[in-house]
Design goal:
Elements: H1 9-31, H2 59-67, E1 71-75, E2 78-81
Antiparallel strand pairs: 1-2
């Protein structure tokens, strides 16, 4: 990909929505873990801070979303929603 590549708003919005959905589902999954043989969830809040974005989108899209202030770069390929 070219260094100064410009992505249209549709691509950026789609990537951001996919990332937010992944974060939401991962948090819900972590918060709903059953433990101790109890038939109810633990009620514990998720401690997820950042995660890797979906691989369906190139890293340049994530860099652009960071530049626009939509997500935060946590380093090591991990990003966090703002």
């Amino acid at each position: 990909m070219a260094e100064g590549q410009v992505f249209d708003n549709g691509q950026l919005k789609s990537a951001l929505n996919a990332f937010k959905k992944r974060v939401k589902l991962t948090k819900l999954d972590q918060e709903s873990k059953l433990g101790g043989g109890r038939p109810v969830t633990s009620g514990k809040r998720s401690d997820i801070v950042g995660m890797q974005p979906p691989r369906e989108y190139p890293k340049e899209i994530w860099a652009e979303l960071v530049k626009q202030g939509k997500i935060k770069d946590m380093g090591g390929g991990y990003y966090a929603p703002i």
